[in-house]
Amino acid sequence: MLTDLPNILTLLRIASIPVLVVLLSVHSPTANVIACVVYTAACITDYLDGALARRWHQLSELGRMMDPIADKLLVGSLLLALAGLTQLPVFSLYAGIIIMVREILVSGLREYMASQRETLPSTRLAKWKTGIQMVAIGFLIGGDGAAGMLGLSFLPASLIGGILLWFSVIPTVISGWGYLTAGLTRIMAGQTRKSSKISF
After folding, report:
1. 180: Cα separation from own chain's centroid
2. Are the CB atoms for 32 and 24 separated by under 8 Å?
3. Subcellular location, in the record's words (predicted)?
4. In b/e form, how buried is each residue of 30-47, taking b as 16+ CB within 10 angstroms?
5. Which of 39, 95, 152, 169 could make a disulfide contact with 147, Cβ separation 3.0–4.6 Å?
């Protein structure tokens, strides 16, 4: 049900997006620190919603659908906001483009497979991909200003975030290719089965 706590946590993750975008638009170290706190809380809900759903036996198709959508909305929205605010260093704008293209392709593939009554389960590599992306975006949200405000001026937060975003491209592309090949294999197998039934 939508009112189950795991689903509420997922919805809160989505609700945090406009708050984060507004905070980023303020362009101040204080706002960036607050954005980091809100973002960290949103990332924690990504772990909690699944863990609680499994522990309380509240697994549902609604939750299974909403959880990856919430992740994609959070990552995609913040990448767009950071790009618009020119806060993506070391050419990591292009890493963001690769990430967005992959997410759109995989989402489209999942939608098509659902229409064919096929599924595309999430993989462990895809979860690692999401984790690295979230850590990278956390550093980019805080930036050097937030690091300095927290007494960590020696830490090149923006540079670390940009490098991590590029690093996340590796599992992003590999997992995306895995989804694509697995999806096409299942689709072709399904069409073969349908053809066999028609021939009889």
Report:
1. 18
2. yes
3. Membrane
4. ebbbbbbebbeebbebbe
5. 152
| Pair of tokens at residue 154 | 């020696």
Tell me how far apart the alpha carbons of residues 124 and 179 are, in angstroms, rounded to a whole number. 12
Q: Which residues of 74-93 are buried (b: 16+ CB within 10 A; e: fewer)?
A: bbbbbbebbeeeebbbeebb
CA atoms within 13 A on the CB side of 41: 16
pLDDT tens per residue, the chain (200 residues)? 556 787 888 889 999 999 999 999 998 999 999 999 999 999 998 888 777 777 777 666 666 777 888 888 999 999 999 999 988 998 999 999 999 999 999 888 888 877 777 777 778 898 899 899 999 999 999 999 889 888 888 999 999 999 999 999 999 999 999 988 888 887 777 666 665 555 54
Q: What angle, 0 to 180 degrees and rounded to 10, lies between the N-to-C axes of helices 61-84 and 124-149?
A: 40
Report CA Rg, the chain. 19
Nearest to 75 by CA among 126, 125, 7, 32: 126
pTM for this predicted structure: 0.85
Taking the C-alpha atoms of residue 104 and residue 169, their distance in angstroms, rounded to an integer, is: 15
